[in-house]
Amino acid sequence: MKAVVIGGGIAGLAAARRLESLLPEFEIDLVERSQRLGGKLLTEHMHGFLVEGGADSFLSRKERGVGLCEELGLAGELVGRRPESARSYVRHGSELHLLPEGLTGMIPTDLDSLADSTLLSQVGRERLAAEVDLPPVPTGADESIASFVTRRLGAEAYERLVEPLMTGIYGGDGEQLSLQATFPNLRALELEHGSLIRGLLAQSPEAVATRPPFVTLASGLETLVARVAEGLRHTRVVTGRAALGVRRSDHGYEVTLDAGERVHSDGVVLCVPAFAAAELLADLDSDLAAAHAEIPYASTAVVSLAYRDGDVVHPLDGYGYVVPRAEGSEMLACTWTSSKWEGRAPDGFVLIRVYAGRFGGRDVVEDSDDELVGLARDELRLLGIEAEPHLSRIDRWPLGMPQYVLGHPERLKRIESALADHPGLALAGAAYRGVGIPDCIHSGEEAARSLTESLARVPG
User: Fold this and answer.
1) pTM exceeds 0.85, yes or no
2) Residues 155, 149: Cα–Cα separation, whole Å
3) Which part of the chain has CATH 3.50.50.60?
4) For the chain, where do the domains classified as CATH 3.90.660.20 start and end?
5) For residue 107, what pLDDT is reported?
6) pLDDT digit string (tens) for 50-78?
7) Which 8-state DSSP code applies to residue 28?
């Protein structure tokens, strides 16, 4: 008995790990196109610096991130952001405006704190405060994040506050992103309480958290990848090999690999981007493939730069800043990594990450290394940094972030409906119901459970 997991990111690794526990009698193959496992969890240790090439943290309240770390003996490595730097900014022009306190998710609920903020004008603050008196719109079709937030809080609150925070999560365009697929709780609050602000304030106080809201691993997030891979007991890990297609066979599925190799299996878990899944599924189910091909992706680049303390005029007194789309910049955000996390830079140095590339804009990953470093250095002149960087690293993520655009919930229903015709086939990854690390872990584990249950229902 055999199962094949295609894709060696954290979703695929989580799927293989869970399959080992659910199907101990099975042989499992994990096939990854690149030479390394981990996908966008990529940590480099360079001359005393710890540089994350992709994600640098995850939400602790989503249980499968912390939960998996605990199961792997990594709980002691989990660390929160540096509390002394607990502030973030929004860039407007060449000025940084402090994010107000009292944000619940992306939504401001502390109107007194907002009154002291320079982020919104007086007119913008008054429009936001008037949200409590706006009647809800009756249930109807899904709407974009931009439409919903502008309707409830005003255009200024959306453009200056919510949009840049939302872009920090999805790297996308709020005019196209589906509210129902990204933040369905906001619509539910409007319908239940008649107001976002009233609804958020009416929520029961959360129990005192045992961990900070955002956590990472002291040794870098790729440690999680390594620990999962080391713990696999009857999984054959194959890197540097591409899966080319999935077909039905007499006893399950046939997976075609490059060099013409064919692997026969009882079950398959696809843990790849939607566009890759579309290619793999083309001969198996054209409708299922077409639904995947409709999910768009954004490309981004991360430029990490290190400087000597004396070369930085700005105090870097926070976690960094986000850049609204209205600024017309290709930059999404700037993280002051060494202010945000302990142990990311040696004494006497600072480490900064600049994120570039907006969905719908030009493809910055096609720029040369020098061009990307130049873009990042132009951005950092805002902080008074003119010196040559002591160290630089560039990580490109072409088509790296799925976009849950309008129609995404209906698209998922189509995928689920088509998937019901293929027992023993399961899907996981960021393309479906969450882009964060815990979301991907959960999706991989759920795919393993789904595959196990569907195989149990197959006659014979």
Assistant:
1) yes
2) 8
3) 2-37+226-295+404-457
4) 297-402
5) 86
6) 999 999 999 999 999 999 999 999 999 99
7) E
